[in-house]
Amino acid sequence: MPFGAHETMEVHEILSEKLNMMNHFSLYAQFAQAAELREMIERQMQSVTGSYDQLVAYTHDYSAANQPMPAYPDIRAGVQPQQIQYGLRNPAPVSPELQGRMNDSQILCAMLSFHKSSAKLHMQGALECADPNVRHMLIQGAITCADQSYEVFLLMNRLGQYQVPTMNDHTAKTYLHTYQPMQSMQPMQHMQQSGQPSGMAFNGGPQGRMNPFDGPRPFGGMMQQ
């Protein structure tokens, strides 16, 4: 069974990106100072390597899709919204540091950028795939990358390295609370508010129904009443 041209190119891009990520993460592990960061790098490296090997195997042998990948730990487990630190607290100025090695803060920033880019690349590739197994693997890859980027964000936020700017709480609620749930409106009320008279059919007849298959229409001509 052949691969389509689109998915062939998308898989090529994603495998190249995964290879690049593994090379970089291996380098980051050598420079990381904090034990928590080194453990995160090792855990995410195992995940990236596993997904890379599965996708490579599937391009050689279609049966590789039957080998399920172990799920990445649920990053949201145990995390409450109240734990996220919001607001700016005198963020330190930043500028390029070209000293030839990386500190933990730079490594975290690089990992976050990798995962965000990879999540977008995986989902974009999945939308171009005809093969159902490749599509599923890329969607799962997008979810994993999104979870891993959130794992990096949580550590950066806790360390004060990723500060989340906010707006006035009243402004945010006023802006978002203009949207109301559809369930709060009765269907008849919705039709009346949208300008559609009650009991009037779309084709102009009382209690009628619009039927897209009610017979041929002259191309480019006026609809017959």
Automatic annotation (TrEMBL):
Keyword Protein biosynthesis (UniProt): no
Keyword Protein biosynthesis listed: no
Keywords annotated in UniProt: Capsid protein, Sporulation, Virion
Region of interest (Disordered), residue spans: 190-225
Subcellular location: Spore coat
Gene3D superfamilies found in the cross-reference section: 1.20.1260.10
Pfam family for this entry, one: Coat_F
GO annotation (BP), single: sporulation resulting in formation of a cellular spore
Primary localization class, coarse: other
Biased composition (Low complexity): 190-200
Family: Belongs to the CotF family.
PANTHER family: SPORE COAT PROTEIN F-LIKE PROTEIN YHCQ
Listed name of the protein: Spore coat protein
Classification of source organism: Bacteria, Bacillati, Bacillota, Bacilli, Bacillales
